[in-house]
Amino acid sequence: MMRRVLAGLCLCLCLAALAAPPLAAAEDEVVPEGAWMMRLGVSAHTETQAFSRLHKQAPLLDYLVPDETVRTTLNGGVQRDVKRAQVDATYGLSDTWNLVLGLPYEQVHQSSTLSTASASADAQAAVDRLQSRTVSGAGRLQVGSLHRPVFTDRSGFVWGYGVDWPLEAPASPWAGRGTLLVDSPFPRLYGLLHYTFYPFIPRTHLDLRLELGTSVTRRLELYGGGHDSVNPGNDLMASMGWSQEFGRVATELTALVFRQGETRLNTVPQGDGVSSTSVRLMVGYGNLTELEQGPIAFPYQVQLRYQQVLAGYDLPLLKQLSLSLQFYF
Question: Model-level pTM?
Fold first, then answer.
């Protein structure tokens, strides 16, 4: 009996080892020479809560007005509704070298019921700065290069680099991380490493990804008048994801950790470093697995994602829903 069990287990492992790697659309995906991949995506989330500098959930106002002596003189609250659309394109210069382009458009609506009975100039300035208002426009243009030196039935490795470049002037004078903006106003250079492992389970893969970014110091208009040099600090994003396909349906669960250094105003640290731990769930549907049988007219995958921050320091509480269509030609 034991021999039959072991023989059956060995047979299953052998069949899994012969199984092709999953064809689900993936982050940092490298397409063949001469091929295009396009992704059209939209996302939305509402900010009413934040993780304070005490690592606790608090009203968004705690993040927007970190000075407690000012915040205690304010009445009411602030809410932000964020909507984003993005177009991404990847082109295969070769089977191992791709160029990537991304262009987002974002709208942020700030709703405020803030008021104050204080005669303090700081309290009045906070109320004025956080009035109800909507800003919109193009975000940072993303241009990158992906290289895949390793790809086998068991593993793949991609490394890349690029730049995120602001296309428009800041929508508001700089007042710290909580400034009402369409996107970060800072040019950013980044590098990434992405390792994929295909275990002895059909249509499954494990992804490990690391991205490091450094932002360029920029001279910005400050809220209250004047201009000064501002740098938002270097950043790091690490993630680990597990993906599984069931026919045309693809699923993915990813854990993400983000860290960013303190903002420096004229080289002086502002004590506002950021950290977060979040999870992301993806469910996709498409016909990519049919490529194993030969060419098809319109390879595609629709993806629905939900991401939530579980813990953090000095940042809004994110609960984001996004929908995207990814196709190839």
Answer: 0.87
